[in-house]
Amino acid sequence: MKIKSLLKTSATGQQVIVKGWVRTFRANRFIALNDGSTLGNLQCVVDFESMDDALLKSINTGAAIKITGNYIESQGKGQSHEIQVTDLHIYGEADPESYPIQPKKHSLEFLREKAHLRVRTTTFSAVMRLRSALAFGVHQFFRNEGFQYVNTPIITGSDAEGAGEMFRVSALDFENTPFTKEGNIDFSKDFFGKETHLTVSGQLEAETYAMGLGEVYTFGPTFRAENSNTTRHLAEFWMIEPEMAFFDLNDNMDLAEKFIKNVLNYILKECEEDLIFLDDRLKQEDKSKPQAERSSMGLLEKIKFVVENEFKRVSYTEAIDILRNSKPNKKKKFKFNIDKWGADLQSEHERFLVEKHFNCPVILYDYPATIKAFYMRMNEDQKTVSAMDILFPGIGEIVGGSQREERLDVLQKRIKAMGIDEKELWWYLDLRRFGSAPHSGFGLGFERLVLFATGMSNIRDVIPFPRTPQNAAF
Ligand code: 4AD
Ligand code: MG
Predict the structure, then answer these.
(1) Using one digit for the tens of pLDDT, what is the confidence trace for 282-311?
(2) Is residue 186 part of a domain?
(3) Which terminus of the chain has a smaller tally of CB atoms within 10 A, N or C?
(4) Total number of domains constituting the chain
């Protein structure tokens, strides 16, 4: 039986078999067993007098074991039920001298170096169960809304964001690279007969499917070779990208807000135990911080706040006015001072708006065209595009999206102005040639959502094996 289902029953007296890993073994008598199905451990009581000495010695933290016994009401305090062990089998021992995950507090930095074992800690198992539930909540939301799930390619010939931050995919021999007469690398000899990269976003391909299936979403890994060593950036992260025919920017914002609230509501219902644990963990962490750095809200409170309150919608132009007149800007406290309209917003500005000014999630819209991607729809003012970013407390940007430019001539002009080769995007332009329609979509960084929902502070701790600059261990 899984410990999760066992701990839910009160049907005592039954004989059960449970399999899992020893968290602790106390007084030669009490095993705290965890099988990953739930936060709680199952107390298993062994009768050491009737047990083989060698067997007793190998019940160490980390060992994988099978327990057969009677499920009974607990004789002791701290748990309602326990197992009276009648038989114990050890699948694999864990040498206490060398097993790194001992029953004491390990730092998150230490555990990052043991990423292959860290899921055996209470914190990481809770985080990863939440991550799994969030992914399910995502699929459930879109299914209920009538969206089709499409899988967009991971290897691609186009740069969706036009930012040039892509990892190359090649099967060429580095030692023996073919060159053209002009002295360039001859990609016609490469596996695909052309230059290819890992995708930064599934959006462009998702758009093609929205123009036939109506409402679609992708949910897959995306890759960015940007050298950002922050607590919010990964080189490999998962992105959820819905794309909807006949949606304008307002419909897009409505959907994004509903989506986030829905998914968070889902974990409030499904993951109460893990959330309570993480809420408590955050409170403990906070105690060791100076007053000014403590969170004003607990984790559960923060999630409920987002679910229950409207996101504040503010245009880029309004935001710039607020920032320009803000105290930190006047006192030159920002690293990047905001002096004029058109400035790109840094995370310090986004966080000021969300955490200091509005105190709630904010949707910024209508950004200057010059700081946004080529595919965003030009507004009538000819200066701004129908873009929207959702900014979250403690996170900064969690969603980036837009209404797409559906007018062929306008799009061609934009592509040219941005120095992108139109030929690479012939199929994307075809969508504007045949049955073009207004449409919109957005991308939500899954790990940033997991960060928010778990209260963890480093994005490296919410994905099993983080890939960041100079780090691709495991
Ligand atoms: O704002 P971005 O770059 O938008 C796009 O890629 C669009 N094509 C999405 C779309 O409209 N379909 O990225 C979207 C989101 C960001 O808001 C952020 O949450 C996340 O992806 N993100 C990252 N998450 C972790 N590490 C990184 N390096 C990230 N870069 C973006
Ligand atoms: Mg963005």
Answers:
(1) 999 989 888 877 877 999 999 999 999 999
(2) no
(3) C
(4) 2
